[in-house]
Specification:
Blueprint lengths: L8 H25 L2 H13 L2 H29 L1 H25 L2 H24 L9 H11 L1 H6 L4 H11 L6 H20 L4 H8 L15 H10 L1 H30 L4 H16 L2 H10 L2 H21 L4 H29 L5 H40 L2 H10 L7
Helix pairs in contact: 1-5, 1-6, 1-9, 2-3, 2-5, 2-12, 3-4, 3-5, 3-17, 4-5, 4-9, 5-6, 5-17, 6-14, 6-16, 8-9, 11-12, 11-17, 12-13, 12-15, 12-16, 12-17, 12-18, 13-16, 14-15, 14-16, 15-16, 15-17, 15-18
């Protein structure tokens, strides 16, 4: 068998150790950067004193993830996953610390810089899910990827509620309002960097380079580090092109609505507790059911699972449009939105990884993460003005338009449904 090397005892041991380290990193790291979607947007509104500017400032996290993701993939190809992930988590820790200073000084510049650096945590979390597939057997690639997504549930659900212990820390230390959550996040993200830097050994890509000589080995040899070459490979592969389209548009829809939900809830008179619970339930939908999505992708098919995700995106939009003025409906819409995101991104990431040449995967994966976050940044920037002009119902309806190109792509290339 061409994948026989994957069953060697040393490879199996490296796979298990890699997954254990990535599990810990995802839990602690997601807890750290999870404060961004809830506390971050409120801090941005507090510092900028403008809803439109708050959306732009909040988008800086997504912009940071977009700027960092591709270089991070290139660094992983050159120096390995361990160094790339350690650098990204460390950068996110520094960004959280800068946000504490921005709250103290009321500085929009430091707010934006801190948010951009915090985006490195998002980029690291995305790359970690791909790192889980480096040593995975092809038939279990979706499950391995979804495992790392799933374990982030604990941190990602609790992260938006860091505002509560953050308030206690502020009361004890005299930190300015909304900064305590990011002081805690800085410590958590720093711990994550140390865990990955010390314990992610052996380097997964080194193991692949030593053993994975088969044409369909699950990771890279010497990688073509030019992003243009990787993009050309994606363009030549209809499955890869479709997977990238689904990833980008689902992330755009999700971030656009999620970014302004805390502001919408604040308009309804709710405080940080309701905002935190709402975002936590949204994130629960994003991560808690990832293993189910991985099983669906491996058994039912990646494209069929992606199409089910499009149906959930539409359902979320309908609830958001009809129940924009009811808190309960907004909570349900956000939960469905997170579930739809999971149902699209897990199979789409799995499809993308298997649709390109092994030597191109780290750069293609980094490029896909960069494209996802670049599109989401545009959505986050536009979401503030949209909320101000057409309210939450109009924002939800606009996000639903992201479903159309994905469905059209399958209709035009019906052979994709077999994947």
């Amino acid at each position: 068998m061409r994948e026989a090397w994957l069953t060697l005892p040393e490879v199996v041991a490296a796979r298990r150790r890699t997954l254990r380290v990535l599990v810990v990193a995802q839990v602690v790291g997601a807890l750290g950067y999870g404060a961004g979607p809830s506390v971050g947007v409120l801090l941005a509104q507090q510092v900028t004193r403008s809803e439109a500017l708050a959306g732009i400032a909040r988008a800086s996290t997504t912009i940071g993830a977009a700027l960092i993701a591709l270089p991070l993939g290139m660094l992983a190809a050159r120096a390995g996953r361990r160094r790339a992930l350690t650098l990204a988590w460390g950068g996110a820790s520094a960004g959280a610390a800068v946000l504490v200073v921005s709250a103290a000084l009321g500085s929009t510049l430091l707010l934006v810089l801190g948010m951009i650096a915090l985006g490195a945590g998002t980029a690291a979390g995305l790359q970690a899910r791909f790192a889980a597939t480096d040593l995975a057997e092809p038939a279990h690639r979706g499950r391995s990827l979804s495992l790392v997504v799933w374990v982030g549930t604990i941190g990602a659900v609790l992260g938006p509620n860091l505002g509560v212990p953050g308030e206690a820390l502020e009361a004890r230390t005299g930190l300015p309002p909304l900064s305590g959550a990011f002081a805690i996040a800085a410590v958590l993200l720093g711990v994550t960097a140390v865990v990955v830097g010390v314990f992610l050994r052996p380097e997964p890509l080194d193991v692949v380079r030593r053993h994975g000589t088969a044409p369909d080995a699950t990771s890279v040899g010497p990688a073509p580090l030019r992003p243009g070459a990787a993009l050309q490979e994606v363009r030549r592969s209809p499955p890869a092109t479709f997977a990238l389209l689904a990833l980008v548009l689902s992330h755009l829809a999700m971030v656009s609505v999620m970014t302004m939900t805390p502001v919408h809830l604040a308009h309804q008179g709710h405080g940080i507790t309701v905002v935190g619970i709402t975002i936590s339930l949204h994130v629960l939908g994003m991560f808690a059911f990832a293993p189910v999505m991985g099983v669906l992708a491996d058994r039912v098919g990646t494209v069929r699972t992606i199409l089910l995700g499009q149906a959930l995106l539409l359902a979320s939009a309908v609830v958001g449009v009809l129940g924009a003025d009811r808190t309960g409906a907004v909570v349900v819409a956000l939960f469905l939105l997170g579930l739809a995101w999971s149902m699209v991104t897990v199979p789409a990431a799995t499809l993308l990884s298997g649709a390109v040449a092994p030597e191109s995967r780290p750069v293609v994966q980094g490029g896909s993460d960069s494209a996802m976050n670049a599109a989401a940044a545009l959505g986050a920037i536009a979401s503030g003005p949209l909320l101000a002009t057409v309210d939450f119902a109009g924002l939800s309806a606009t996000a639903a338009l992201c479903v159309v190109p994905v469905v059209v792509a399958v209709v035009r290339r019906r052979e994709l449904i077999r994947l």
